[in-house]
What does this fold into?
Amino acid sequence: MSYRLLSYRSGGEARAGLLVDGQVYDAARATGKPAWSSVLGTLQEWAKAQREFAAFARRIATGKSKAKGTPLARVKLLAPVLYPGNIYCAGANYTDHMAEMARAQGKEPGPTMKELGEKPWHFVKTSRSSVVGPGAKVGLPAYSQKVDWEVELVAVIGKTAKDVSADKALACVAGYTIANDLSARDAMKRDKNPPGSPFHYDWVSQKCFDGSCPLGPWIVPAGDIGDPHRLGLRLWVNGELMQDSHTSRLIFDTAEQIAMLSSRVTLHPGDLVLTGTPAGVGMGRGRFLKAGDTVKLWIENIGELVHGIA
It folds into this structure.
């Protein structure tokens, strides 16, 4: 039997939990490791933690543990990583999304950056201000009327990585979760700066408003996912399917992204890599989020993340 690693509210504090067969167990108490009371604490010792978590799940499955869990329905889930060290987000990284955005600008889809010989490209999101968990209600920023949705597979780093090769990069991943890379599309450009200016784009206003990174519901260990490039992913707004794609359509795969990032900066346990979003975003259809909307995201073998818009 496997487990899911999550953060939940217990009394007035956030705790790391293990979801096993519908029950949530306190990770630190289940293993006798006080340092594993937070998900970040477990990621700092991931090689050891994942073995002990798997062993605990087996004891539950075989009836050899007397630990008492709490039914998942009675647990208040939080964002699984509170709070990530750094959040790296892949831009323009699905073939179907690139074609969609080209058409929205009245252009014919052209070759991908990978086909042109380019490297993966990322921007960053803030951590504490941006990350919210399942069930959160994200307030629309006052300066934007065009907040868009973007379902993304997230790789959670569990091993320090510097100058790692692509063939070894996935060994640095502790597990995977889901994110909505909310984007204020009408705040992405500074119109008084010409398009050719390096200061034309405003990445902070577009990508880093409060609550702009709903995350969850939990982390699925990498070993349970297998190949992260064989996963369906979908997003609904108020029950209407908007995005329906597959991670096989990534331009630069997860390993290539991690390798590229690690050639520039050291990746640390608890860092997140948001791997890009597929076609079906609001900008491509001129439709955006409004107060009262409910957004549901799903990725195969991970689960569902639901949040609201306030």
Q: What stands out?
A: Residues 4-78 form one domain. The helical segments are 27-31, 39-44, 46-62, 95-104, 166-169, 203-207, 222-225, 254-264. Residues 150 and 181 are 5 Å apart (CA to CA). The chain has a mean pLDDT of 95.
